Amino acid sequence: MARTYVVKDSRSSAIDMCSTQSDLETVRRALKNAEIELADARSYIRELVTSIEFVTAERARLESALAALDFDLDDARRGRREDAKRISRLRLEVGRLRYELCRALRRRHENHRVVVNGSPSTEIRALSSGSRDITAIQAKVTDVEQELLAIQRDDLEC
């Protein structure tokens, strides 16, 4: 097969070459603009990845803080139940001690009436033993009531 070549005049070749150079320059500018846009897109993607990593880390931190708060809430609820039980026990103790105090006061009063008719030594012995019982019970009642008030104050502060 033979090849045929067409020779154009030099003027037409110069115009084609000038047109080709112009097209090449346009393609180079487009390539440069595309590279700039690609660099901008890569930079934007890096910023997005950084933001996603930050949000992920913040989410993990918040989930950890939430778990700690849940634990603290459960612990506070347990403490509140325990305090309520303790308050109930202390109220029962106060009631029991008040009852004992009333009984001791009644006994003292009855002993005092009975002793008036007896000898003075019996009267002194009865009064001193009744006074010790009453004083001890009153001290217990005071201690338990103060403890109960302290627990209730602590409960109100929480």
Description:
It contains two helices and no strands. The longest helix has 107 residues, at 10-116. It has helices at residues 10-116, 120-157. α1 packs antiparallel against α2. The chain is 92% helix and 0% strand. It has one domain (11-157). With 158 residues, it is mostly helical.
Descriptive key words:
single chain, 158 residues, mainly alpha, 0% strand
User: What's the shape?
Assistant: rod-shaped
Task: Count the E strands.
Answer: 0
Largest sheet: none
H/E element order = HH
Structural class: mainly alpha
Classify the beta-strand content into a percent band: under 5%
Compute the average pLDDT. Answer: 80
**Considering DSSP H and I runs of 4 or more, what fraction of the residues is helical?**
over 70%
Distance between the termini: 103 Å
Structurally, how many domains make up the residues?
1
Which spans of ≥5 residues are poorly predicted at pLDDT below 50? 114-127
Layout: helices, strands, pairs:
Elements: H1 10-116, H2 120-157
Helix pairs in contact: 1-2
